[in-house]
Amino acid sequence: MQLELLITKFQQKDQKAFEELYNMYGDSMQGVIYNIVRDNDIAEEVMQDVFIKAWNNSASYSAEKGRFFTWILNIARNAAIDKTRSKAFKNSKKNLDAEYFVDILQTSESLDDKTDAIGIKKFVKKLAKKCIEVIELLYFKGYTQQEASEALDMPIGTVKTRNRNCIKELRTIVLE
Amino acid sequence: MDINAYIESGILELYVAGALSETENKEVYELMLKHPEILQEVLEIEAAVIKLTAATSRGTKSRILTLIKEKLLFNKNVKETKVVSIAKPKYNWLTYTGWAAAILLGVGMFWMLNQNNELKSDLQTAEIEQSYLETQIADAKTDLESNKKLLSILRDKDIIAVPLGGQGDFANTYAKVYWDKKSNEIYLDAQGLPAPPPGKVYQVWSLKLSPLTPVSLGTIDDFMQDDNKIFEIQNLNESEAFGITLEPAGGSETPTMEQLYTLGVVAAAP
User: What is the pLDDT along chain A (176 residues), one digit of tens a residue?
Assistant: First the structure.
């Protein structure tokens, strides 16, 4: 598989492979990081840290442990959350608890330039709050199923099926 | 195993989210390898999630990549990055060379300083040696002059040579007197006399034989200090013989005959 080859090369410190992977996942990571820190400069700073860390620790990834996307997503979420816990960040920032990724989608002007952006906007408009919540926690915030179950106050099985249905809906919009 | 039920359980969505345990992750991975449908499902979930999360990005991915590549010191064929990648090693090369040069210079200067000090002390030694040699040369010149003078005296035809033979207990001693009658001086060669014991001096006597009348010509006080043991002594007497006795320091009025070392009679004038 091509992705596997790319990852192997990346682990052998192939700079071209690194760039390709960056181009595949860069926007996604920036989205996740920005959603957590809600500041352009800080998000860019974290973004650099994340990919430098990925480059330096590429050997620690193995396909058995999960998807490459998931691996780098974990690095990004952890780095961003660490940043929000720093003293400087706490002093300068408002309470972010009530915000969801959908706020960004609705206010973002640059969205119109992007492929799928219109579809995603439509999706978001149609999305029920229950979907927004579960997607926010599981993908944007990195909750485990147990944590999500507690946060949403519902059984793990319900979290799983609800999430399944929400992602299914998303897929029909963006992957047709 | 019911693949469809497994897919519908929603575990694959959690797998992509990273919400599963390590054991569950491994389990999904193995099932993906066995069942292409599961792999396909995972790929689609992943693609959808990537699109959704990417939609919240700020669209500055390319600019950030440049910063990352700078920080990771990537070498690229692209001109922009080439400048960076070449400038870095150049800077390092310059830094290292600079430090190396500085250290070399320091070591070199220290070495030169040492050399300089060594040369200074060498020069000082040489100067001392030179002045020492100059003294020696001056001494040698003085010696040469006195030797020349002696030689000219010995060769003078008017000089009367009087050998003084060892007497009694002192038979193995000897001396010689060269008498210059014109200048009324004698030159006593006392090479054949032993060093006088402490508190004693040699005293030189001019003698008339009949009757035996000794006249003191003086004591040789600087016997030990004189190297060639030739002593210049004034003699106004019509001497018929010369003798040398050992006397207490300061000399005696009359010779102590028991301590008569050498004696010699002046040969009758031709």
Answer: 489 999 999 999 999 999 999 999 999 999 999 999 988 899 999 999 999 999 999 999 999 999 999 999 999 999 999 988 887 777 766 556 557 777 777 665 554 445 556 667 776 777 778 888 899 999 999 999 999 999 999 999 999 999 999 999 888 877 76
For residue B198, say if its preceding peptide bond is cis, omega within 30 degrees of 0.
no
User: Minimal CA–CA distance to B259: which of B177, B199, B169?
Assistant: B169
Residues across chain B? 270
Q: Are A54 and A10 in contact (CB under 8 A)?
A: no
ipTM for this model: 0.90
**Residue A121: closest CA among chain B residues belongs to which residue?**
B55
Fold adopted by A118-174: Arc Repressor Mutant, subunit A (1.10.10)
| Domain A2-92 CATH assignment equals 3.30.1240.10 | no
Between CA A8 and CA A6 the distance in angstroms is: 5
Reported in sequence order, the residue ranges of A78-152 that DSSP labels E, i.e. its strands, are: none
Q: Does B86 touch chain A (CB under 8 A)?
A: no
The answer, for B25 touching chain A at a CB cutoff of 8 Å, is: yes
- Provide the CATH topology of domain B159-265: Immunoglobulin-like (2.60.40)
